[in-house]
């Protein structure tokens, strides 16, 4: 078997998996920018919205940062994988970018 992975035939956001007589390119974990294998512990660097923690790229909870990310009145922060979104608090709805009482 020739190790085709030695020549790095895959794209930047993929890793190479050598198989008997061939190879395949597999997608890196969403938390990675470049990787050497499967999972968030094989990242070359962490993607935006992720940080290295215990040798793994883990999601940054922007909603728990000391600096508030959702600045509008009656708005709540919802953490998402690699990011966050601002939504109107319960009992309020978005009307032209402002959260008004329903």
What is the topological layout?
Blueprint: E1 14-19, E2 22-27, E3 32-35, E4 43-46, E5 50-53, E6 56-59, E7 75-80, E8 83-88, E9 92-95, E10 98-101
Antiparallel strand pairs: 1-2, 3-4, 5-6, 7-8, 9-10
Would you mind describing this structure in some detail?
This is CRE2A protein. 0% of the residues lie in helices and 47% in strands. It has 102 residues and is mostly beta strands. It has two domains: 56 residues, no CATH class; 35 residues, no CATH class.
The order of strands across the largest sheet is: 1-2
Rg over C-alpha atoms, rounded to the nearest angstrom: 20 Å
Helix amount: under 10%
Low-confidence stretches: none
Strand content: over 45%
Describe the sheet with the most strands.
Answer: 2 strands, antiparallel
Q: Indicate the overall shape.
A: elongated
Count the helices. How many?
0
Structural category is mainly beta
H/E element sequence:
EEEEEEEEEE
Q: What is the number of E strands?
A: 10
Total domains? 2
How confident is the prediction overall: mean pLDDT?
Answer: 96
Measured distance between first and last alpha carbons: 67 Å
InterPro entries: EGF, EGF-like_Ca-bd_dom, EGF-type_Asp/Asn_hydroxyl_site, EGF_Ca-bd_CS, Furin_repeat, NOTCH1_EGF-like
Organism: Thinocorus orbignyianus
Keywords: Calcium, Disulfide bond, EGF-like domain, Glycoprotein, Repeat, Signal
GO molecular function, one term: calcium ion binding
